[in-house]
Write a structure and sequence with these properties.
Oligomer: single chain
Structural class: alpha/beta
Radius of gyration: 27 Å
CATH architecture of the largest domain: Alpha-Beta Complex
Number of domains: 2
Strand order of the largest sheet: 3-2-1-4-6-5-7
Helix content: 40-55%
Number of helices: 11
Number of strands: 9
Length: 365
Amino acid sequence: MKSPVEDTPREAKASHVPRAQEARTETRGAPAVRDVDVSVIVPITMGAGRVREVVEALSRELDRLGKSWECILVFDGVRGKAWIEANELAERFEGRVRSIGFQQTFGESVCLSAGFEQARGRVLVTSPQYVQVDPFELGKMLAALDAGADFVTPWRHPRIDPYLNRVQSALFNWVMRRIIHGKFHDLNCYFRAFKREVLEELTIYGDMYRFLPVIVYRQGFQVVEVQVRHLQEWGGAGFFGVGVYLRRLLDILGMVFLAKFTLKPLRFFGTLGGALAIVGGVLLSICIWDRVFHDEGLYQRPLFLLSLIQVVLGVQIVGFGLVGEIIIYTQAKNLREYRIERIWESRTPRDDDPRKDDEPRSRGA
């Protein structure tokens, strides 16, 4: 497989200085940057992560674009070769490459959260621990942010990974598009760019980092999908374990709830509990009918116990929804499911106002 530098488009190659010259032009004693254009956060979950390739490829492209940058490498309880390379890069790019190490594994969401807390850039970029996407595509993603987007998610097209993996990914993204009524084609790609303001209304936990574009989209931000060139992919081909598909199913159910019932829990729990209670009630009525008119045993029938459990369980689930509604009601003044991008208003100046223009004025919200 070609290296990330060899896969870079010709116009991007021309701007890259030779390796030896690049080493001479780096400022070893530069002070730490306090305000940068782009912060790159890279979660490292394997000791064999290709840290050097990621930092060098993205730094070249950001230098070509004239952007100041920093790179935060977050190690999720792993060390190995990647940790050694990270220390070397920290000395080479003094003040621009930093490493965060956890004592144990917490997951990629925690890694991203820790990186976001330490980031100082106006734009945040998340990258896998290898060069998955052509670094040249970063320019298109940053341009989309400059054009007004709040969050840019990539679409690897065409894909270069095995056919079976592509089919599974396409099916997953198709299901998510039907759930959220969005147009995302590649939620499995973690090479993303977004403005710092997005973090103010963003909460990442569990495996929700996979659905960042969906969460941001539901928060009312402008999310743009950009086609990017796919370079390489880690992992084998074929079907995953049963646990992986079960976790994905639970993730999808979680996104269904977050997308449609976050502020209306009674609709979800009421529908589910009501259905169970109705079915259980019908079966319970049949058992009672047989007991009254056919003198059949009641307590000895498994159907009677099953229907009774269904009714009780349905009532309990509806109760969960009612408790959720009470919590939402008491916290309603602190909750908001919309985002105001800008307010346009027109003011008529007074006679004594020196600014007698009737042009509408706008202000951000």
